[in-house]
Structures are given as C-alpha cells and as structure tokens.
C-alpha cells in the first residue's frame, strides 16, 4: 500500500523526535544545557502530540469527546488522495452543511473502512480489486464495507437530518 502525505509527515515527525532525543542525551548538566534540554523536551512533547493527533484524528488528552463537537476541529479528517472533492458532480457541488455532514460521518469510520467504502461506493471498484490493492482478502474488504454501511446507517437513524441543516 502506498504512503499518503499524512503518513509521510508522521514518519518525518517520528524521525525528528528520534533526532531530538539523541541531541538531548548529548547535553551535559551545566545551566545552559539544562535550559536547552527543557526546550528540546518541549519540542518532543509537541511533536508526539501532533503525531497522536494525526494518527487518531482526535486531540490528544481531550476529555468527553468535546473535540468531536467543535466545528473548528470538524475539518476533513480523511485521506485527501481518496476524497479529492466532496462534490456529487461538477455541476452540483455540496453545500457547506452537506460537506460538514459527510465529514462527520466519515470520521465515524476507521481508516480501512473509509478507504474500502470510498473505493467501492464512490469509485465503483470491485471488491477483489480493492483487496488486491490494499493487500487484504476480499472477505476483509466486504467486512470493512459492511461495517461502514452499518455505522453510516446508525448515524443517520439517530440524527434524523433536516432540510434546513438544524
């Protein structure tokens, strides 16, 4: 499976964390080095939080799921290579409300479910082809698609969306 830009960014952050840890061990116990070590440790924590956020799609340390309610954090948490545009067709793009609803629904899905569902429903690829490209069995692809459909159906049954976007 090919790496996305987000996977590559995570890999670069992890490499930087390792380099910073190596740099920190080279410092001595004098006053200037202690200050440098504090700054390096702060950078390491920030990078680790960033990696965790990119991997999970949720703010590290957030409690009670408040991060899922925030519009600011409802930005598309999906692979932009898989979902280049949320337009249904070129002549009739989705409204902001509809785009937000799609992003919320897609966040409910795991990465594998999102990819399999998109390739199957949006790109209309056969399950066998998806399985080959993702290095999975056809049955695993079917399972991911089924799970995604159940989660989407459950979300819309619970939310009962209105035409006004309320």
Automatic annotation (TrEMBL):
Domain RNA polymerase sigma factor 70 region 4 type: from-to ranges: 106-152
Pfam families, alphabetized: Sigma70_r4_2
Leader sequence segment: none
Cross-referenced InterPro entries: RNA_pol_sigma70_r4_t2, RNA_pol_sigma_r3/r4-like, WH-like_DNA-bd_sf
Top-rank taxon, per record: Bacteria
The protein's name in its UniProt record: RNA polymerase sigma-70 factor (ECF subfamily)
